[in-house]
Each structure stands twice: as C-alpha cells, then as structure tokens.
Specification:
This protein is of the alpha/beta class. The chain has two domains: 158 residues, Rossmann fold, CATH 3.40.50.1370; 153 residues, 3-Layer(aba) Sandwich (Rossmann fold), CATH 3.40.50.1370. 42% of the residues lie in helices and 13% in strands. The chain is built from 13 helices and nine strands. The strands form two sheets. The chain has a five-stranded parallel β-sheet. It has a four-stranded parallel β-sheet with strand order 2-1-3-4, sandwiched between helices. Bound molecules: phosphoric acid mono(formamide)ester. The site of phosphoric acid mono(formamide)ester has 10 residues, from helix 3. Phosphoric acid mono(formamide)ester binds next to helix 3.
Length: 323
C-alpha cells in the first residue's frame, strides 16, 4: 500500500490485512492485569509477544508528520499514540506558525519536510480530494494518509468502525447497518458505505430532507423515509454528527429542530432495535444525535471501543504505507 487515500481504492484483502495487523497490535498492547482481554498465558509470555510484534514493525525510527488543518481529538491523538507505539518520530505540524503563513505552497512545504527526513504525511484538511491531489503533485517518495478531507473521505474511521463490528459480530455480511443523520456533509458516511458494501453488508441510510445529499442516487444504499422504520431490527445503528461548522444558514435553522424528531434515547432504541450495536464517530453532540443518558449507558460504550480501536488501526496503516 503506497498511500491510504480512500477506501474505494483498497481491495477486500488489503482491508483484511490492515484489520488483522491492527488486531495483533491490540492483543500485544493490552495489559492482561487490567482484565482488558481474555489472555490465559503468563504476564511474561504476554510481554514477549508484545515485544516481538512491536520490534517486527518496519517503521521504528521513521518520521511521521501530522498536518491537521481542521480540528481533531480522536484522529490526531490516536495517530500520535500509534506513531509513538511504533517507535516513530512525530512532528505535530502547526500550519498557523509554519511558513505556509508566509505564502509557501503546500507542495514546497512537503518537499522540504521530505528533505528533513519525514517519511509519512498524515493530512486532515477541509478541501475535498486534497490528499489525492497533493500526493500526485509531490514526486518525492512520501507516503500519504488521508485523515479526513472535506466532505469526501475518512478511511481510517471506516477501518476502525469495521474492526469494532468484526469484534462484535464476527462478520458484517448481510447485516442491517443503518447510517443516520447529517449524511450530506459526512465523509464518515461515504467511507463506511464504501467499506461495508465491499464486505457484503446491507447498508441503509436515513436523513431528514435537509441533510439528504442532492446526489443521493449515487449512494449504493437503501434510502429510508422514516426514522423508526429505518432503525427497526437493525443490527447496527451508526449515528452521524451534525456538522454545525459546515452548515449554511438555512441548514443551521433546520438543524435546531433535529433533536425534537431524531434524538435517539434508550427508550426508543429498546422499542425498535433492542439488540442493535450503537456507533458514532464522535464527537457526539449530547442531546442532539442521542440523549446523554443513552451515551452514558452500557449501549454507549461501543463508541469508546471504536476510539480505542482507532489506535491499533492507525498503527497498522502507518506501518502499511510505503511512500
Ligand atoms: N471521528 C473523528 O474524526 O473525530 P475527530 O474529529 O475528533 O478526529
């Protein structure tokens, strides 16, 4: 894998390889003394397994540069932790205090970073397709990882969601996975759709009219017209964040009423989809996509499990890209 730009470019086998490696890292990272995994060997055996897996990674002493032009907690911090666990050097690039502010182009910046010894660029940006475009402009052998580009793609989010689903369900094949909320602004929805379709899931979408993309026919999914019918008997409900920072004036006005009709509560979940796995990419708008009590209930715990899996998926991706 040269770069990770978009799920659409990965084969099923490449996705499986990333998840398998992420699971190895997870097994090696978890401390059996904290009861996080069901490991029956002794502590010293476990430590040796961890050491072997970590030493086997090929990116120790390589350098990753995290370039986040949009805010982030989960993605940025988990890439930082992942790189650190792999023994990589990490640069937390600050665009505002960099020479981009003097008019230097992104391409020239990247060329200079390569000559300082940077191997991998992790890029989050507000512009659709920028990771793809800049990876083609830069001719030096840098590896690029898309950490979210505009409303286009968020491949590592889809991979960590898939890892979480495999842990819970074993497979996503023929599972009813319902993606709900602000679909029109969501790169998470697009990357998850691409991955889940590849893996044989039955993907449904529900969005109010003001969050339904104009090109909804291009989404290879079943579009539902009623929230409660959509979530009925779902195996998985994936709520999307209302992306207030991307809404125009009219959408903002409409979004103020979103929670009145579509806020998921424990009661609603118990009525329509009591066995569903509840997911959300975060950050959650409490009381908007779901109630605070649901988020804080055992059902909400999967959302933090997604976040934890993000570390291991990002370790596998950092190790896997070759530039
Ligand atoms: N899910 C996600 O991308 O969260 P952050 O914006 O906090 O990275």
């Amino acid at each position: 894998m040269k770069n990770l730009i978009d799920i659409k470019r990965l084969t099923k086998e490449e996705i499986d390889t990333i998840i398998t490696r992420a699971a190895e890292f997870k097994t090696a990272s978890q401390d059996p003394a904290r009861g996080e995994i069901n490991y029956t060997g002794g502590i010293s055996d476990f430590a040796r397994l961890g050491e072997r897996l970590y030493r086997a990674n090929s990116c120790a002493n390589k350098t990753a540069c995290l370039m986040f032009f949009e805010n982030s907690t989960r993605t940025k911090c988990s890439f930082l932790i992942a790189a650190d666990k792999l023994g990589m050097n990490v640069i937390d690039f600050n665009a505002q205090t960099s020479s981009l502010s003097k008019g230097e182009t992104l391409k020239d910046t990247l060329d200079n970073l390569y000559y300082m010894g940077v191997n991998t660029i992790v890029l989050r940006h507000g512009e659709d397709d920028i990771t793809d475009k800049i990876s083609k402009e830069v001719t030096l052998p840098l590896a690029f990882i898309n950490a979210g580009d505009g409303q286009n793609a968020h491949p590592t989010q889809a991979l960590l969601d898939y890892m979480t689903l495999l842990e819970k369900l074993g497979t996503v094949e023929r599972k009813k996975i319902v993606i709900v909320g602000d679909v029109s602004h969501s790169r998470v929805a697009k990357s998850n759709l691409a991955l889940l379709n590849k893996m044989g899931a039955d993907v449904h979408f529900f969005a109010p009219e003001y969050f339904t993309p104009k090109n909804k026919g291009e989404y290879a999914a079943i579009w539902e017209t009623d929230y409660d019918t959509a979530i009925s008997d779902a195996d998985v409900i994936m709520l999307l964040r209302i992306q207030t920072e991307r809404l125009n004036g009219e959408e903002s006005e409409m979004a103020k009423h979103y929670s009145e009709k579509y806020c998921l509560t424990s009661e609603r979940l118990a009525k329509y989809a009591p066995d569903a796995i509840l997911m959300h990419p975060g950050p959650v708008n409490r009381g908007v996509e779901m109630s605070s009590e649901l988020l804080d209930s055992p059902k909400g715990r999967t959302i933090l499990e997604q976040v934890r899996n993000g570390v291991y998926v990002r370790m596998a991706v950092l190790e896997g890209v070759k530039g």
